[in-house]
Amino acid sequence: MLDRLQYIKQRFDEISDLIIQPDIISDQKRYVQLNKEYKDLKALVEKRDEYVKLTNDIKEAKEIISDGSDAEMTEMAKMQLDEANGRLPQLEEEIKFMLIPKDPEDAKNVMVEIRAGTGGDEASIFAGDLFRMYTKYCESKGWRTSVVDVNEGTSGGFKEVIFEVTGEDVYGTLKFEAGVHRVQRVPQTETQGRIHTSAATVMVLPEAEEFDVQIDMNDVRIDLFCSSGPGGQSVNTTKSAVRMTHIPTGLVAQCQDEKSQHKNKDKALQVLRSRLYEMELAKKQEEDAAKRNSQVSSGDRSAKIRTYNYPQGRVTDHRIGLTLYDLDGIMNGSIQKIIDELQLVNNTEKLKESEVF
């Protein structure tokens, strides 16, 4: 392990020198990539320094104990040895998880699409609840959210809502939220007090850069139409909303959130590019998941991943068998514990198949 950590230290020192070079600073794309690598490696180098200190402490303590000429020093050395031996296995586990290669997509921003599924008006209301849950979670992480397109439900909520999330390691954090979310509760419209089951589908698309996906605009049909919903005088009078259809795949993306047709075109193209990128990524994820029989594959968008049971105040993630009795907190954005558990299971699976150790 120490050899591997030494190589990481060398790479860290190399990047530390590179990011202050004027030619690197002037190349924004390269500078951003190196800065990201610098931050990732910095955490590992700090663990490496702790690992080196611990192993040195163990060696030093053993030498003092074997000498045995000073009773007081020997007693202190025994305490130091016990402390270091107690910390070392835990530190080794932490380093192993940090050495798992990260997916290059994990650092990307995302487009989140929430669609009401079975359950009529209640499904739309639930889609709205999920939207609020995610926006509150993003706010707690210091991420920025921006609505791209909305199709409102008849009794509140959304038939469909698409929003962009920008921040640090967004896709790596949110990717396991993709799938079918179920809710069990008494709907507002239910007069008999019966519990209904409704569903909404969440898709998490890594935001594709222009160099990730090349779109030939000759393959794209662009339709302009009037915006609907709140938005002032321009609504239903100006054709500012944009719908793009990618003819080879049949994928459709639209944006009507901005008052400017030009801005809506840019956002719609961004969504289209991300959907094309996600199509290819989903194939790869399914192949990877099949290879290791992953419990938490983010590739299968038809899988029922989670149930929100209101009468019992519980939330269950079916992939890892996790049940939490904190429904109110979770619906108010406190989903970090679920995400932590999903990431732990995924990293453990990756660690098992890794040939590094």
Shape: flat
Q: Cα-atom Rg, whole angstroms?
A: 26 Å
Helix content: 40-55%
Which structural class matches the secondary elements? alpha+beta
The strands making up the biggest β-sheet line up spatially as 2-3-1-5-4-9-10-11
Number of β-strand runs: 11
Query: Which runs of at least 5 residues are low in confidence (pLDDT < 50)?
Result: 230-236
Strand content: 15-25%
**Number of discrete helical segments:** 9
Task: Output the helix-strand order.
Answer: HHHHEHEEHEEEEEHEEEHH
Biggest pleated-sheet summary: 8 strands, mixed
Distance between the termini: 8 Å
Mean pLDDT comes to 86
What do these coordinates show?
With 357 residues, this protein is of the alpha+beta class. The relative contact order is 0.10. Strands 2-3-1-5-4-9-10-11 form an 8-stranded mixed beta sheet, sandwiched between helices. It has a 3-stranded antiparallel beta sheet with strand order 6-7-8. Helix content is 48%, strand content 20%.
Write the layout of secondary structure elements.
Blueprint: H1 2-18, H2 22-26, H3 28-67, H4 71-99, E1 110-116, H5 120-141, E2 144-152, E3 158-166, H6 170-174, E4 179-185, E5 196-206, E6 220-225, E7 241-246, E8 251-255, H7 261-292, E9 304-309, E10 314-317, E11 322-324, H8 327-331, H9 336-353
Parallel strand pairs: 4-9
Antiparallel strand pairs: 1-3, 1-5, 2-3, 4-5, 6-7, 7-8, 9-10, 10-11
